[in-house]
């Protein structure tokens, strides 16, 4: 005589434990989703090459002085200074004119911080610090002039200079999530612009 196969029915305690585990797992999943919020970009990174290319569009620049001396600022070279949260700029100089009779060459070394201008979505240089402005072999009077007016010319040439301009398409997703450019940090891989919650007026 054949016997029917035995069916084991879970007891009430076992079923209760399974329901509790299922409910707990679902709760954790829902909590995680609530903390994460809508997915999207949290920062924008500008490479050194991108900023260098934008800066190069403004150079070379010439500054004639009273028709006697002309200072020519060549295309600067940028470098990242993560420890200071700034950018370094080294720029070749040329001085010429009827008062000098030949061309003299030198360099200028400075660094600066960065700020974001929301009006036109640009990243700009600010807080410039000139460390050196030197042209070798200049006559004493011309060297004195450079020491006096060189830093002012650098400020004039580079103050608020645009290093990058974000396009509407770059910020479309961030804008839809209520985010806007905020803190900027210079890192070894470039300039990182944090996308922070938009401040309500």
Primary descriptors:
alpha+beta; Bactericidal permeability-increasing protein, domain 1; elongated; 7-stranded antiparallel β-sheet; 201 residues
Structure description:
- This protein has 201 residues and is α+β, with helices and mostly antiparallel strands.
- The chain has a domain at 59-163: Uncharacterised protein PF07273 family, DUF1439 (Bactericidal permeability-increasing protein, domain 1).
- Helices cover 31% and strands 39% of the residues.
- It is built from 4 helices and 10 strands; from the N terminus they run αβαββββββαβαββ.
- The protein has helices spanning 12-36, 48-56, 140-158, 168-176, and strands at 43-46, 61-65, 69-73, 77-81, 86-96, 104-117, 122-135, 162-165, 179-187, 190-197.
- Strands 2, 3, 4, 5, 6, 7 and 8 form a 7-stranded antiparallel beta sheet that branches. Strands 1-10-9 form a 3-stranded antiparallel beta sheet.
- The longest helix has 25 residues, at 12-36.
- It is elongated.
- The N and C termini lie far apart (86 Å).
